[in-house]
Amino acid sequence: MKRVDLYFLLLATVLLICGAILGIRMGAQENFQLVPVHAHLNLAGWASLALFGLTYRAYPQLAATTLARYHFIVSAIASVLLPIGIGLAVLRGQPALAIASSLLWLIGVLMFLAQLVRLVVGRSETRTIAAAE
């Protein structure tokens, strides 16, 4: 996937806008029942996805991997479904989507960890080869 960093940043910005609109709406109505939805739009959506995108921008060798594409797909789906699931849990007492999307989000975070480990291991192998020469 070319420019996975930009896909992460674009989705992060869309979710930030959604979080801001929800926050403004809650404030205007003085009804803060959906604060957990607002928080997850901003944290799982904006903050995490933006950091993933910036990391892929800083380390293009990670962005070029197949895992980066799957990481985006999993994290994108989870970051959109998680606030919806939390909203359903808060408003209707139906937590199933929140639970499922939380687990999917965790899988995305573990994929990111795998990418970082790949980076660390790759760098240490490069240093070992350079030191041996």
Short note summarizing the structure:
This protein is mainly alpha-helical. It has one domain. 89% of the residues lie in helices and 0% in strands.
What does this structure look like?
- With 133 residues, the chain is an all-alpha fold.
- The protein has one domain (4-132).
- It contains 5 helices and no strands.
- The chain has helices at residues 4-29, 35-58, 60-63, 66-92, 96-132.
- The longest helix has 37 residues, at 96-132.
- The two termini are 35 Å apart.
What is the strand and helix layout of this fold?
Blueprint: H1 4-29, H2 35-58, H3 60-63, H4 66-92, H5 96-132
Helix pairs in contact: 1-2, 1-4, 2-4, 4-5
The biggest beta sheet reads: none
Give the number of domains: 1
Instruction: Report the end-to-end length measured between terminal Cα atoms.
Output: 35 Å
Order of helices and strands: HHHHH
Could you say which overall geometry the principal axes of the C-alpha atoms support? Answer: elongated
Radius of gyration: 18 Å
Q: Please identify the structural class as seen in this structure.
A: mainly alpha
Q: How many helices does DSSP assign?
A: 5
Strand coverage percent: under 5%
Determine the fraction of residues in helical runs and give it as a percent range: over 70%
Count of extended strands:
0
Which stretches are poorly predicted, pLDDT < 50 over at least 5 residues?
126-130
Mean pLDDT: 93
